[in-house]
Amino acid sequence: YLRMRYGNKVGLAACAIYLFLSQTIGAVALFSASLATATVFNVPLIWTTMGIGLAGTVYTALGGLRGVVWTDCVQAVLILMAPVTVIAK
């Protein structure tokens, strides 16, 4: 849409910015999960990073986007139920 409305340069710039930001967010998420896992289990960070990355890749490849969406739905329900559980206690 941006390319059609504002021109090719704006479309390419938006594409580059989106690519950079999405890769950065993915890297931060992978690193934070790996760091937490490495700290808890006292395993080298490189092994946890490789393991989590491989697990996510295999899960997405086998389950497809549909599996990822269903996992996100279950995660959303759990996140929404956590405050209710804490307050009810």
From TrEMBL:
GO CC terms of this entry: plasma membrane
Topology relative to the membrane: Multi-pass membrane protein
Ion transport in keyword set: yes
Transmembrane stretches, start-end: 12-33, 45-62, 69-88
Coiled coil: none
GO molecular function, one term: transmembrane transporter activity
Main localization of the protein described in the UniProt heading: membrane
Keywords assigned by UniProt, alphabetized: Cell membrane, Ion transport, Membrane, Sodium, Sodium transport, Transmembrane, Transmembrane helix, Transport
Cell compartments where the protein resides: Cell membrane
UniProt-listed PROSITE patterns: NA_SOLUT_SYMP_3
Entry's Gene Ontology BP terms: sodium ion transport
Family: Belongs to the sodium:solute symporter (SSF) (TC 2.A.21) family.
Record protein name field: Uncharacterized protein
Organism annotation: Ixodes scapularis (Black-legged tick)
